Amino acid sequence: MAHTGLPDDFLWGVATAGHQNEGDNVASDTWFLEHTTPSLFREPSGPACLGYQQWETDLDLVAGLGLNAVRFSVEWARVEPERGVVSAEALDHYERKVDGCLARGLAPLVTFSHFTAPHWFAAAGSWTAADAPGRFADQCARVMARFGDRIAYGVTLNEPNLEQLLQAGAKLPAEAEALKARMLVAAARAAGSDTYASANVIPADRQDEFQEAFTRAHRAAREAIKASRGDLPVGVSIAIADEVAAPGGEERRDAKRAAVYDHWLREARADDFIGVQNYERIVHGPEGEVRVEGELNGMGTAIEPGSLAGAVRYAHEVSGVSVLVTEHGIQTADDTQRAAFIPAAVEGLTAEIAAGTPVLGYCHWTLMDNFEWIFGYGAQLGLHEVDRETFRRRRKPSAAAYADVVRNHRRALTVARN
């Protein structure tokens, strides 16, 4: 059997996020917005998947798939629920989780902010406040001081370009944008502050301001993490669709790339890697986006396994650094689509690596169906179902399909080595 082209230390993982999985993240900005009237969030997160309590069971699920990595976030709102008040219990919890990963042979890939922040932070200017980079750096430093010696990769921010991507693709209708604005005004009033903001519900007219703020925060976080441990690979994860030009669509494609990705890909030149989070391909014609025929995913675009390789290729071309696929998946209630999608996408990624693009690992989003932000529990992207009453996890066929992919690559590596 031919060599797979993947290095021995290639990371095979799943990605999760605290707020979406843990439940009862009551000190966070997102929790506050879910309970604001009006709210853009379809429903509150509530107990989510009870992941805070069931983390050991969940790590067993990851290990049971034969994976060697897991990406998760440390929730700042749990660690610093009030300004200047640090929860030893929360730090203890995340330290146990890191050690639990290592005990199961899983590399801990830690996200320092996966959209959510403390409520007090959101009410005091959020990421655009003058002291925001320093406060986030302090949070990164306290996490690093506790267990930074045991983590494998550090992701500062999750998808700081998501809102640009949504707006460039007109993914949020005008009425949703108006509701978002009303929600943030109501939240500020309820919090008794001048403004209220959160990382994944940014008003259209504040995009540039937040991009600059996120850039300052990323740099401050990277510096704080590196000050604690200079050898830890640090990067930022961005949302990136595979932008493809049909004849005559090159100018539109390039404009989209410039507006949504290129700032962060250039910023990543100073990082150790770029995190790529890919879910779809967008085809550009001379008049705009071209609708592609074929089976559609839950986002309304054609299912295209090749989108991952295309996104990874572009990210590396511009950034010049190695790529870590920090998220990739498919929104669909039909798990047969997911079970077919994963092997095909990984095959394309393997070919891209064989062609010379450096890729550190692949994390599938996500371990289990969870709280998908404004869409609540209506969007399924998990390898496991979660019973909303009992919180029992049930493996889907796609989990077995992913486990097979990993097993086959390891087998091919062993054969090639012998």
Automatic annotation (TrEMBL):
Pfam families: Glyco_hydro_1. The keyword Electron transport does not apply. It comes from the Bacteria. InterPro entries: GH, Glyco_hydro_1. Keywords: Glycosidase, Hydrolase. PANTHER family: GLYCOSYL HYDROLASE, LP05116P. Belongs to the glycosyl hydrolase 1 family. This is Family 1 glycosylhydrolase.
